[in-house]
Structures are given as structure tokens and as C-alpha cells.
Design a protein that fits this description.
Order of helices and strands: EEEHHEEHHHHHHHEEEEHEHEHHEHHEHH
Number of helices: 17
Oligomer: single chain
Largest sheet: 4 strands, mixed
Number of strands: 13
Strand content: 5-15%
Length: 537
């Protein structure tokens, strides 16, 4: 219950006493009155300072406290008020009066909110002192009022004041506190505009994310019109698309292509409308497709792969790079052991027989469940990269190609190259795993599944989705590649000669001396002919 203090007019909230509490209050009041009479007649011999001290000597009428307690229990006020401003106390048991007072209180709060809103909208007409006084008043409301909705409104207006004064951090802090108290679309719209000042591309995304939240309830912030908000949304959408690839990789790792306007922006799955796709964003042939979920290549940060086939695509890309590196380091032959086959594992090194120079050769069978469709896809990639390709010794020195992307992240490859550079390695076993290409943790998969379902339910993207297969866990598969290399002592026979250098007279052989002697004689004859011709003329 809420009433105004009869003494000072401050709004106060009552505490409600039960039957026993009112009885105890009646008993204490009479007993304390007896102590006060005794004090006046005989002095404060008991040292009583408060009616809360009960005991010791009884008052003159022993039955009076109990009678008063019974009276207070049945006839006392149900609500007791104590003004926090002046300390005045009073009681009330009139439900109709209390309801009227509470209604007046709510009406007064609503009017106060309207007044604060109007003042905030006219800040440009205020002097600096008036703005400061208005900000102080808002802080007093936040400090003194205990109504969440009213305090939230005060934080909204405080954020607006600070934003207008150039205090972006203070504005953001105020609007965050408003949202904590009362999560309104208006507050999210204000937060989105404040975050517009962010310096990074991710800040711009978070700004757009807040602006989209306000649209969920079709709310318009008090400081803007619908046309203004539409313009702001368009500007943020374009800025989001233009700077999308500047967002850190981990924060734009997963995207979904949509043909609809923004209705929801999840935290992990980034929604990219097809009309805003950055021109620098690359996809495999036949993509992008509206409604498709994509994952970014881990080492090509503008290349996106379909989520459903990404692992096999990454495996193919990694194997092709490995083949190029081995070729550039004088691979002579490669034999493949299928580690997924039970028969292969039992056969051991017997399956490694059949060495063929100058080509990749596949050895081993595939049984024990390896003939699944998924396995066959990976086996085909292995065969395409390493089987049936004759490989002659290169005409240039061993080297790492310039455009590698997997090599800097594969320590086993780097160790192999170090050994090859020393010139004392003729063969080496390399194990390749499909799990090495996996880029989705179980936690990421669970989070994405929830966000895709939420986005579809909100109408942010059309189509039917089976997220149980989209985010399936991958089974690890592995192969061992036995690689033999051409020996380094043959390098002088195949590598182009070093640039020609001038030789000293002592280093020049007899054929060179004879050649220069003939050239000298020819030059002398020509010179004598010219002299004779000049003399005749």
C-alpha cells in the first residue's frame, strides 16, 4: 500500500502487520506508557529508553497491556506507515482509501515519466547549467525511487543526456542498467544508436543486433520517428555488409544466407542477406544458396564452405596442398595404407609391398565397415590425390610453394621438411586424419542447432531444416602415406647451373686461348684493310 505522508507529502509504502504482530504492538504500547508515567513520577530508575525493552517492573495496571493487545489485534490498523523523510507515523485499515492512494501514486509516476521525457527532448534549448540540474534530478530519481519501471525510464533519459553531451561510455552504461531493470524495445533501440559509435566492425554488428531487437515488438523509441528508424536500419545494414569480412574470424565463422529483412540476429550464427553479400566473399562453384549454412575456411578467411560438406571439402584442399609440397620436395613414390580397414591392420607391413617408382600407388583393402558412403568419399579424395600419378624428379631445387595455407599449421609437415633439408632422409611415413580438418566443436554444434531453429521459428529464413543431420558428429578416418624421395646427391644433374662467372687467365683452358687468338688476327686484318683503303683514296 502507498499513501502520501500527512505531514510532508512524501509518498510512503506501508508494512502490513498480522494478528499476532498487532497484539504485540498493543501490549508494548501500554507497557511503555506505564514506564513513561513511572519515569515522570519517580525518575528513570530502570533506565528505560525504548518501548522495545519489556520486562522487570510492571506498570500500575497489570491487566491493561493484555487488554490493549486484544483490542489492537481485532481493531488495530492493518497497515502502518512511517515517512522516510520526516519520520511521521500513521496507520490505515481503509482498503478503498489505500487503493485510491495507490492509483494516484501510479498516475503521478506516469506523469513524472512524461515530464522527464519532454525535458530530455528539449535539451538543445537548455543552458549547460540547466542540463546539469536535469541530470542531477535524474540521479535523484534513480537513487530514491524504488519502482523499477520508473528508474528504468530515468536511466533511459540519462543515457540520452550523456549521449547528447558526447559521453558515449556513460550513455552505454546507463542504457545497460535500464535494460537490466526493464527489458524494453525502446532501450535496445537507444543502445543500438549509442553503439553506432563503435570503432570495430564487430561493434557495428552488435549495434545492428540491438536495433533488430526493438523491431521484434514493433516499438519506436521516444526520440525517433518510424521513418528515422527505417533509415538508421538501412544504414546499419549496409555498413554491416561492407565491413563483414573485417569482423574477427571466430565471430563470423558461421553464416546463413537469407532473402529476408533482418528479424533476428543470433550471437554465433551471422545472418547475411543475399542482397548485402560482400563482393569479396567467395564460395564454391554453385554457391551461395539462400537458406544454406556455411562455415569459413580456417586459413582462407573470405572463403565459405557449405556446412553439410565442409569437412570433405577441407580434407580435399589439405591433401592437394600436401601433394604439391611432396612433389616440390622430390617425392619419388607414395604408398597408401588404409588404417580404417580391419584386414589392413592385421596384415601390417605386408600391405606396404609393391613399390613403384615415379607414381602414387594405393595398397590395402577396405573391410570391417569401411565401405560406408562417407568412407568412400574420403577414399576417393585420397585416390584422386595420390594414386596413379607418375612423378618424375623436378628440375628445380626442393622448395615450399608460395601459396600454401595448411603448411604453417601442420607441425609434422614442417618437421619432415627440416629433415629433408638436411639431405639425410630417403623415406618417411605421414599419417593423415579427417579429424584434423574438422573445425566444429560439440559445443559449437549444439549452439548452432539452437540458433538455426530459433531463426527459422522467427521467420528470419525460409525452408525446411533437419538440424540433426546438419550438425552430425564426424567419425575420424586415417591413412598412412609412405613417401620415398629422390636422393639429394643427384641434385647437380637436374638443377639448372648457377649463373656464369668471369674466369681468370689461369682458369681459362687451351680452346679458349685459341679462340681469342683467332678473333685477334681477324680484327688485325680488318684494321689493316681499312688503313690501306684510306691511303689509296
Amino acid at each position: 500500500m502507498i499513501q502520501r505522508c500527512p505531514n510532508c507529502g512524501q509518498w510512503c509504502e506501508a508494512g502490513k502487520d498480522g494478528f499476532l504482530a498487532r497484539a504485540n504492538r498493543g501490549f508494548e504500547n501500554v507497557l511503555f506508557s506505564g514506564y513513561k508515567i513511572t519515569d515522570k513520577l519517580f525518575g528513570n530508575t530502570l533506565g528505560v529508553k525504548s518501548k522495545a525493552v519489556v520486562g522487570g517492573a510492571a506498570s500500575g495496571a497489570m491487566g491493561l497491556p493484555y487488554l490493549n493487545a486484544m483490542k489492537e489485534s481485532f481493531l488495530g490498523d492493518a497497515y502502518k506507515f512511517q515517512c522516510p523523510e520526516c519520520g511521521y507515523e500513521w496507520g490505515s485499515d481503509d482498503e478503498e482509501e489505500d487503493q485510491t492512494a495507490e492509483y494516484e501514486y501510479e498516475q503521478q509516476h506516469e506523469q513524472d515519466v512524461i515530464d522527464l521525457r519532454e525535458q530530455s527532448l528539449h535539451l538543445t534549448n537548455y543552458s549547460d547549467d540547466e542540463v546539469s540540474r536535469f541530470e542531477e534530478h535524474l540521479w535523484s530519481v534513480i537513487t530514491d525511487d524504488d519502482t523499477d519501471g520508473y528508474k528504468a525510464s530515468a536511466y533511459d533519459y540519462l543515457a540520452y543526456v550523456k549521449y547528447r553531451n558526447g559521453d558515449k561510455n556513460g550513455a552505454l552504461d546507463a542504457i545497460n542498467k535500464s535494460i537490466q531493470l526493464y527489458d524494453s524495445p525502446d532501450a535496445h533501440a537507444t543502445k543500438g544508436v549509442i553503439m553506432e559509435e563503435g570503432r570495430t566492425a564487430f561493434d557495428k554488428y552488435k549495434s545492428l543486433q540491438e536495433l533488430v531487437k526493438y523491431k521484434e515488438d514493433d516499438g519506436i523509441p521516444y526520440w525517433a520517428s518510424e521513418q528515422q528508424m527505417d533509415r538508421i536500419m538501412d544504414e546499419r545494414s549496409v555498413a554491416y555488409a561492407e565491413d563483414f569480412l573485417k569482423i574477427p574470424y571466430r565471430q563470423r565463422k558461421f553464416i546463413i544466407i537469407s532473402d529476408k529483412d533482418f528479424v533476428m540476429l543470433p550471437d554465433n550464427l551471422k545472418v547475411v542477406p543475399d542482397k548485402y553479400l560482400p563482393s569479396e566473399m567467395l564460395f564454391p562453384e554453385g554457391h551461395p544458396v539462400v537458406g544454406e549454412v556455411y562455415i569459413c575456411h580456417p586459413y582462407k578467411e573470405n572463403f565459405y564452405l557449405p556446412l553439410e560438406t565442409y569437412q570433405i571439402e577441407l580434407f580435399r584442399d589439405e591433401m592437394r596442398e600436401l601433394r604439391r609440397i611432396l612433389q616440390c620436395y622430390w617425392a619419388k613414390s607414395i604408398e597408401i595404407k588404409d588404417n580404417n580397414s580391419v584386414e589392413e591392420n592385421e596384415a601390417g607391413t605386408r600391405n606396404m609391398a609393391g613399390h613403384v617408382n615415379g607414381e602414387y600407388k594405393s595398397v590395402g583393402g577396405s573391410v570391417g565397415g569401411s565401405n560406408s558412403k562417407e568412407y568412400e568419399k574420403y577414399q576417393k579424395e585420397i585416390n584422386d590425390c595420390f594414386v596413379g600419378q607418375e612423378f618424375k624428379q623436378m628440375k628445380e631445387r626442393p622448395h615450399i610453394p608460395n601459396d600454401v595455407v595448411w603448411y604453417p599449421h601442420r607441425a609434422s609437415w614442417q618437421d619432415l621438411i627440416k629433415q629433408l633439408d638436411k639431405g639425410n632422409l630417403s623415406s618417411h611415413n605421414i599419417t593423415v586424419n579427417t579429424s584434423d580438418s574438422s573445425q566444429i566443436s560439440s559445443r559449437e554444434g549444439s549452439s548452432l542447432e539452437v540458433e538455426v531453429n530459433a531463426l527459422v521459428a522467427a521467420g528470419g529464413v525460409g525452408g525446411n531444416y533437419d538440424t540433426s543431420t546438419m550438425f552430425k558428429s564426424e567419425t575420424n578416418k586415417s591413412w598412412t602415406l609412405k613417401v620415398e624421395f629422390y636422393p639429394y646427391e643427384e641434385e647437380s644433374q637436374v638443377v639448372p647451373a648457377a649463373p656464369t662467372q668471369l674466369l681468370s687467365n689461369q682458369q681459362m683452358g687451351t680452346p679458349n686461348k685459341l679462340k681469342y687468338l683467332i678473333y685477334g688476327l681477324i680484327a688485325l686484318v680488318v684494321l689493316l684493310g681499312i688503313i690501306i683503303a684510306l691511303l689509296i683514296i
